[in-house]
Write a structure and sequence with these properties.
There is one protein chain. The chain is of the alpha/beta class. The protein has one domain (28-324): TIM Barrel (Alpha-Beta Barrel). It has helices at residues 18-23, 61-73, 101-112, 143-160, 174-184, 205-210, 231-243, 257-266, 277-288, 294-308, 318-324; strands spanning 34-41, 47-49, 57-60, 78-84, 117-122, 135-137, 140-142, 164-167, 193-198, 247-251, 271-275, 312-315. Strands 1, 2, 3, 4, 5, 8, 9, 10, 11 and 12 form a ten-stranded mixed beta sheet that branches. Helix 2 crosses helix 3 and helix 4 (143-160) crosses helix 5. The longest helix is centred in the middle third of the chain and has 18 residues, at 143-160. It is globular and about 70 Å long.
């Protein structure tokens, strides 16, 4: 079998210079592809360092406004908010309270950066005393009892001014419940970005410290996806699309590039991927030790996520990438 037409064909010709490489580059990461996650706490002048995620902080709403102004100036189009309340209970009351930490943060952000897209994570784990993503009945997360609270939470975010809501709980039927709640209250133009294929991953550890959301008993494997499964991911995505999701997501990103590719090849919906806290923490820790080129590694990782098929990347490196690019 003839393998090449060498010497007439020389594939290295287009690699001779950066200008040539850039001209024929197939995959490009751009600032407009990125969403930056932010952690919001109650109070004033609160800036709490996240030990497992160096360079990142929990911020109160007054300090958050300065942060979002910087984010907007960097050209990052969107943020996604995670709230940490002062009090928690078994039914996540402060998740859907009109004066909850996220609801107040949305209003504050919209006053200073009205054009910055504000996306809100819709889940109950940060707000429940037990740390699970829904209502617990007899040590089991009750799917259907949770749906009502998720819909109330999403509605309260949208009423506060959120541009998009993003349910991450992995309850069956949550997209439909949220869509019905939004549409029934005149908010039919608020899109839903569904964490459609969210795996029960070991890469979430630093996030659980940041959001103070570790479960107090058991784990989340009865509702988050089993990591060995990819065909099931397609069923999850199909279900969320059928229920009204405008954007679907795969989480985590880097260990699930194959799943991102399968989703992209199967569906035409806009596709997001979440480069999660463990991905950030590993690179940041190694870079601090001088073991790798942080900029090179991060840009290569994000390029791989885009090449796999993601249109949108949620990354804790968004600010740094915006400066590098």
């Amino acid at each position: 079998m003839k393998l090449s037409n060498f010497p007439n064909t020389r594939l290295r010709r287009l690699r001779r210079s950066e200008a040539l490489r850039a001209l024929v580059r197939e995959t490009k990461v751009e600032v407009g592809d990125l969403i930056y996650p932010l952690f919001v706490v109650e109070g004033n002048k609160m800036k709490q360092e996240i030990s497992s995620m160096p360079g990142l902080y929990r911020l109160s709403a007054d300090l958050l406004t300065k942060e979002v102004e910087e984010i907007a100036k960097l050209g990052i189009p969107a943020i996604i908010l995670f709230g940490i309340p002062q009090k928690k209970d078994e039914v996540a009351s402060l998740a859907y309270h009109p004066k909850g930490v996220i609801q107040q943060a949305i209003r504050a952000i919209k006053k200073v950066t009205p054009d910055l897209l504000v996306i809100t994570d819709v889940c109950l784990c940060e707000y429940t005393s037990h740390g699970h993503c829904g209502v617990v009945v007899d040590s089991y997360v009750d799917n259907d009892k949770t749906l009502e609270l998720l819909a109330k939470t999403a509605l309260s975010h949208a009423e506060a001014g959120a541009d998009m809501v993003a349910p991450s709980d992995m309850m069956d039927g949550r997209v439909k419940a949220i869509r019905q709640a939004l549409d029934g209250n005149g908010l039919q133009n608020v899109p839903i970005m569904a964490y459609a294929a969210k795996y029960a991953s070991a890469f979430y550890g630093p996030f659980r410290e940041a959001a103070e959301s570790a479960p107090q008993f058991g784990d989340r494997r009865s509702y988050q996806m089993d990591p060995p499964n990819w065909r099931e991911a397609l069923r999850e995505v199909e279900q969320d699309i059928a229920e009204g999701a405008d954007i679907v997501m795969v989480k985590p990103a880097l260990p699930y590039l194959d799943v991102i590719r399968k989703v992209r090849d199967t569906y035409d919906h806009p596709l997001a991927a979440y480069s999660v806290s463990g991905e950030y923490a590993m690179v940041k820790a190694a870079a601090q030790q001088g073991w790798l080129d942080e900029r090179g590694i991060v840009l290569e990782m994000l390029t791989a996520i885009k090449r796999a098929g993601a249109d949108i990347i949620i990354t804790y490196y968004a600010k740094e990438v915006a400066q590098w690019l």
